[in-house]
Amino acid sequence: MPLTLINHGIYSDLALPDGHRYPINKYQLLYQHIVQNVESNLYQIVKPEALTITQLTQVHQSQYIEQLCSGQLPAAKMRRIGFPWSEALIKRTLASAGGTVTTALKAMETGMAIHLSGGYHHAHYDFGSGFCLVNDLVLAANEALKHSDINKVLIIDSDVHHGDGTAALCAQREDIITLSFHCDKNFPSRKPQSDYDVGFAKGCGDEEFLQSFKGSCQLAIDFHQPDIIIYDAGVDIHIDDELGFMNITTEAIYQRDLWLLGYAKQRHIPIGCVVGGGYRTNESDLIPIHMQLIQAGLKVKAQQ
Ligand SMILES: [Zn+2]
To answer: Domain residues for 20?
Structure first.
């Protein structure tokens, strides 16, 4: 069976001011790279539907969603998100959140699915922050839990930044377990407790990271026995990342992804992945690193 990849053509459709930090073109570059370099029989692309207001307000405050979608959000709240408001911003955001929901649902059908976007873990109940408007990870967990055979979701967040929005949104939920790996001295300064938080010092290297990642994932998976894993495979832990501060090599990021996808398969737990963060002035530098998640997925799929 081919690997399921979720993509929507509008993920990079957003004009940003010159010098803006957000690598909006990386989604399109990643998709193009796959089409040009991966044998077409090895994967299938699924195009998601945008999320509805009803779906969004099951996780977020209605007033926040209404103001956000209509362009009425107070200027201070918009500044905290870090993007100028536009119709295009809302359109791509709702499509991308829909993409992570579709990724979870496809993972339930096929064992594994990868979203070529997603990982908006700084979005809270009634505000967005750090380039995140709505929390696709929690929205996907929430939709997955509507299925009768899904009673527990584990969100594993390996973006270099703490999953503060995810932690806060899931603090009172016993059906969503949160595990965040992150650099301690990095955004956001306030880090509400996840179920499990693994903070690394600045400059943390491959060996310490991989050992801790594998050990903590294994503990959480074995203890909670989730019915599905949602995995944020952020690559801003990379040594050359401009917002990272950790010293993880390209090879160790591949080892991280390969190990987790393999472990989920071994335990027969569906896993839905998102590409997560990654920040470079030259956006094309991110593509080989994000590509490793797809390569790991293809490799694990091919293993019997
Ligand atoms: Zn990040």
So the answer is: 3-302
Strand 271-274 versus strand 43-46 pairing type = unpaired
* Residues 216/195, Cβ–Cβ less than 8 Å: no
Task: Look at the chain and report how many structural domains it folds into.
Answer: 1
Report H helices in the chain. Answer: 26-37, 53-56, 62-70, 75-81, 87-110, 136-144, 164-170, 206-224, 250-266, 287-302
pLDDT of residue 200: 98
Q: pLDDT tens digits for 73-92?
A: 999 999 999 999 999 999 99
Question: Ligand 1 center to residue 165 CA distance, Å?
Answer: 12
pTM: 0.98
Q: How far is the CA of 130 from the centre of ligand 1 (A)?
A: 9
Task: Give the CATH number of the domain where residue 60 resides.
Answer: 3.40.800.20
Question: How many A from CA of 263 to the centre of ligand 1?
Answer: 24
pLDDT digit string (tens) for 148-202?
Answer: 999 999 999 999 999 999 999 999 999 999 999 999 999 999 999 999 999 999 9
